[in-house]
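Narrative progress, year one. The postdoctoral researcher (J.K.) led the effort to move from monomer predictions toward full complexes, under supervision of the PI. The following entry was the first complex the group processed end to end, covering 415 residues in total.
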Amino acid sequence: MSKPIVATTSLAGCFGCHMSLLDIDERILDLFDLVEFNKSPIDDIKTFTKECDIGIIEGGCCNSENVHVLQEFRKHCKTLVVIGECAIMGGLPAMRNNVAPISECLEEAYLNCVSVQANEEKIIPNDDELPMILDKVYPCHEVVKIDYFIPGCAPRADLIWNALVALVTGNEMELPYEVLKYD
Amino acid sequence: MSKVLITIDGKGFLADSEKTVLEVARENHIYIPTLCNLEGIKPQGSCRICTCMIDGRMMTACTTPVNNGMVVVTKTDELDKLRSKIVELLFAEGNHFCPACERSGNCELQALAYLYKIMVPEFDYIFPNRDVDATHPKLILDHNRCILCKRCIRRKKEAENPTWFVFENRGNHVKINFDHELTADMDDEMAQKAMDTCPVGAIIRKEKGYDVPIGRRKYDLHPIGSDIEGKE
């Protein structure tokens, strides 16, 4: 039987969850025995070259590009797993959701903030090449169907490892109290 | 004070007739999860987390007085599901950004979510527009995290102190507030007491926070209620 294929990506996240994935230490060697990576920052494959079994998503959706990538993942992966608070509830980027409309956020960032000095022409970036910022930051499961959720900021390495092993082997996941944390 | 015989989870206990089901369970090291209840203040039964099967009906353990021959079941799959859904609703209703909260690791709401192994709330997040009041010299009120359990209000009403905390507005707009003039000369001890009354991170002391490292906080290693059950 061929190895399951895994794809990973970071949307509106900080790559902390990917760091936590690396934090499984020498078990990363076992991981490469267990699975094959496709589109992922780990092997630097930028676009899907084959259909994948497991998609791992970090971060929520704050712009149109995030939504596009997430939909691509849904299309090409049989099982989608979101990891981290940002993917589950928007996380720190979502702190803008309840504060101000997006126009005010952009004005604060590019025009009114005390540290803005160089923007004399008062430009808010709006090039066609740039992804559109969404009105709110959305958790992944409000955009596409997600199969499994791994909370934490970042999720403990053991939790990610247990989840991956459970998915690959088809056994029930081990979930000790100490590893399920929201921070 | 007369004694009554009640059965909790199949075991018989002799209990004072003036006590509530929750108090009797606690005395006998049986953990019933609570959120709006705090020892020493009058229970109000608003959060419904302590719901048990009492004589075949779902009733809140914190407000139900014991009766002779009462049969209580504290834990069934149905009750656990009900309790975890209440926690999920509270998470979806407020802005509970655990990674950025000073109370994380010591928060009762979060600890209950850990207890029920909630990976994600079933409900869509509301992201309500709520503000933070940091004008007081000692305390910060973060309405984003408030679950309106009224513990702060009830504690002050029953103690000798004048009422510091109050509910402001009505219905969907209700929020806690406190008298800034009365509390202007609040000392650190009183501020700490106010913070400890809050089950979540809605009342936070200024210039204090994150002083216990991750891994050594209250609910990092031991689930909420394990001290009552005497497991650890």
